[in-house]
Amino acid sequence: MPQGPYEERLRGQGSGFIFSTDGLVLTNAHVVDQADRVTVKLKDGRSFDGEVRGTDEVTDLAVVKISMGNDRLPVANLGDSNEVQVGDWAIAVGNPLGLDNTVTLGIVSTLNRSSAAAGIPDKRLDFIQTDAAINPGNSGGPLLDAQGSVIGINTAIRANANGIGFAIPINTAKQIAEQLARGERIAHPYLGVQIAAITPEAARQNNNDPNSTILLPEVDGVLIVGIVPNSPAAQAGLRRGDVITQVGGQTVTQPEQLQDLVESTGLNQTLRLTVRRGDRTQQFSVRTAELQAES
């Protein structure tokens, strides 16, 4: 499993919760990474064989199907993460460090924390941030509200921070859970740009540095720091050092804004980008393509 800001790395261990009466379990994709079958152990000690039905690396979500036979299973009540507010109680449940059935309490620290800001740039997520203790092994377990409804899926902690954890909003999981359960691939559009925020002040500082290798437009926008070869962006003629200032007439100043617009546009759709290149403003048409998971 990958290392870094994701410190949820007890290989082969993790958490999850049953979300349907036919034995479907939600967890993180990195918990079941490269596994075809898993063993699911319930709080009451019962164990079940499970089959990984589908995973999506971009959202770090996975669905496992339990072979339940005639057993009755406890099913978690799914809440509405759109109703969550900063300051609400947050209860993290899981198996941190292999310690079964652990519950920790905190509050919702902030909402819509972008994956880039959380230090996980390869994901496309806006997290619920909480100070409820989340440790290795909590991955995939539920984050509950005060009524016991699932509002998120515990996913990551920062190695360099205390009291900061992140959970995927449950509404994000609801959107793709049935597709994953059917074994369907989740399609994510992409342009093929590596990006960062830029301001006139930051660009000016770069341009005044005698060791700088590139001159940047001194504007607010999203700086292209790299282009993926043979990607839609490369085919459209975008270059490193270009600054995207608008998408379809909508101003963008943060990378997550651009990512959200691309994601919501869908596959094989044309985006009209306003780009500042040097001292000139140019228009580019880029057709989205499907982001391919790394093998």
Could you characterize the architecture of this molecule?
By secondary structure, this protein is mainly beta. It has helices spanning 170-181, 200-208, 232-236, 255-265, and strands at residues 17-18, 24-27, 37-41, 47-56, 61-66, 89-94, 102-114, 126-130, 142-144, 150-157, 165-169, 189-190, 193-198, 221-227, 243-247, 250-251, 270-277, 280-287, 289-290. It folds into two domains: 1-185, Thrombin, subunit H (Beta Barrel); 189-290, PDZ domain (Pdz3 Domain, Roll), CATH 2.30.42. The strands form four sheets. Strands 6-7-8-11-10-9 form a six-stranded antiparallel barrel. Strands 13, 14, 15, 16, 17 and 18 form a six-stranded antiparallel sheet that branches.
Strand order of the biggest β-sheet: 6-7-8-11-10-9
What's the Cα radius of gyration?
21 Å
Distance between the termini: 13 Å
Can you tell me the residue ranges where pLDDT is under 50 for at least 5 consecutive residues?
A: 1-10
By DSSP, the count of extended strands is 19
Shape: elongated
Please give the CATH architecture of the largest domain: Beta Barrel
Strand content: 35-45%
Query: What name is given to the CATH topology of the largest domain?
Result: Thrombin, subunit H
Mean pLDDT: 88
List its traits.
mainly beta; 6-stranded antiparallel β-barrel; 19 strands; disordered N terminus
